[in-house]
Amino acid sequence: MSRIVTVLVVLAMIAHVIRPFGLPGLSRRSDAWKLALVGIGIVLLTAALRPE
Predict the structure, then answer these.
(1) What is the rounded (10 degree) CA torsion for 19, 23, 24, 29?
(2) Single pTM value for the model
(3) Burial level of 16, CB count in 10 A (0-12/13-18/19+)?
(4) Are the C-beta atoms of 3 and 11 separated by less than 8 Å?
(5) pLDDT in the model for residue 47
(6) How far apart are CA 28 and CA 40, in angstroms?
(7) Distance CA 1, CA 45 (A)
(8) Can you list the residues of the chain whose pLDDT is less than 50?
(9) Residue 5 confidence (pLDDT)
């Protein structure tokens, strides 16, 4: 699951650098680091909630 999230976040970052999404807080190309923070948070959350 975390690999899928990582790949999706990387693709979203690449798409955002090419053409910014225009969402509040993501209006500039240099805001791609915010997507990385969200991705790291989601990966940590899935690792913490994984039943093992």
Answers:
(1) -10
(2) 0.78
(3) buried
(4) no
(5) 87
(6) 20
(7) 11
(8) none
(9) 85
